[in-house]
Amino acid sequence: MKQRPHNTETPSELERKLEIDYNSGAKIIEVPSSQLPPGVLGMYDSITHTIYVASDISEHDRQFVYHHESGHAQGLIDECKTDAYASSRVGYNIRPLRKMDRLAA
């Protein structure tokens, strides 16, 4: 993992100002949720190496969605693994437990 420059801002604030995901190098674009598929709060486009995050959701949700998509930009494909990555970064998960998760518990 790359080392972040020393500053007083949180990594997410700095990354959003730079509009680049520091770990993957992906471009970050915040867009209205109306520009994303129905029910989608964020997405990663591997062709353009771009992370899209809904701009009209709470900061709490936006942080999770950003880190989830950052996981995809770093090569994670499995949704449960990208949720786990995002949870490890922000300390919470905004998604309800999936059916398979409930069965495993």
Account of the protein in words:
The longest helix has 15 residues, at 59-73. The chain has helices at residues 11-18, 59-73, 79-90, 99-104, and strands at 27-31, 42-45, 50-54. Strands 1-3-2 form a three-stranded mixed beta sheet, covered by helices on one side. The N and C termini lie far apart (31 Å). Strand 2 and strand 3 form a beta hairpin. With 105 residues, it is an alpha+beta fold.
SSE blueprint:
Layout: H1 11-18, E1 27-31, E2 42-45, E3 50-54, H2 59-73, H3 79-90, H4 99-104
Parallel strand pairs: 1-3
Antiparallel strand pairs: 2-3
- C-alpha geometry: globular
Q: Radius of gyration over alpha carbons?
A: 14 Å
Which class in CATH terms?
Alpha Beta
Give me the number of helical elements: 4
Count all strands and give the number: 3
Helix and strand succession? HEEEHHH
Low-confidence stretches are 1-10, 99-105
CATH topology: Zincin-like
- Major sheet: order of its strands? 1-3-2
Determine the fraction of residues in helical runs and give it as a percent range.
25-40%
Beta-sheet strand percentage?
5-15%
Mean pLDDT score, rounded?
Answer: 81
Structural class: alpha+beta
Spatial separation of the terminal alpha carbons: 31 Å
**Main sheet overview:** 3 strands, mixed
Q: What is the architecture at the second tier of CATH?
A: 2-Layer Sandwich
Total individual domains? 1
